[in-house]
Specification:
By secondary structure, the protein is an alpha/beta fold. The protein contains 9 helices and 14 strands. Helix 3 crosses helix 4 and helix 4 runs antiparallel to helix 8. It comes from Candidatus Methanofastidiosum methylothiophilum.
Amino acid sequence: MKLESIIQKDFIKISIPSERALAIETMKKNNVSELIALKEGTDSFLGILTIGDILSKPEEEQLALVLRREVPVINKKGSIEDALKLFLSGDFYYLPVVDNENVIGIISLKDILPVINKKYKINKKISELIDSNYFMSVWDKTPTYIASKIMLNFKVSFLGAFDESGKFVGILDTSDLIKSGEIISRVTESDATKGESGDDWDWNWKSSVLIGTSNFYLSNKPVLNYIKEGFSTITQNMTISETIEILQKDNTRYLAIIENKDTLIGILRDIDILKAFKCVI
């Protein structure tokens, strides 16, 4: 199968320059946590903007100073293996596809996983991926704002949530943070005062400048209000191929590995499963 067959020509994007309020509104509306950033009026690729990038610089209004520019792109004539190699070089969900330096579409992890799986059937079991599978977790009564700080400080895209009895109850990721937040616009007045004096005269003037800002406020409600409760589960005895089929069927990015009916022993993301195919590149 050629790369062109899995390119999404219709994708969510944002023009630069733009302000963060527009980016967050676009993410909330489309239930995504990453946007492809293009130069205004063109299809020229500038980078990828994530909600984590925005939250890490809460005072920065201009997206051009926030977005992630060191992101690989792939030519439309590239191979499936080329795309796999680029996905494994970082930790992102979208891979922009270019032609003559213009973005013509994107490929997502969701697009490439079943194609790679069909081409390279791997007999590995999930148990072989668990040893290096670590994740951060929080109490399900933790304020969502605090949970976001944990995600930013430890540079993770999701958290496992547990109740007071230690039972795993769901997953909170960056898209849930967007849903929990609220954009509040306000106008502030800035004063500038100047005075000069001379032998025969002096004068003063005062100027007021109105500055409009939009701030994104995360909820202080418990993460329990926003976590993904309908998570998909697998066992460590399942094969990689079986796991990919579940990801596709349930349309999810996360799989909870359960043992003895309700004991959580790990959480796998789509990119974690893609790493099982390192051997083919």
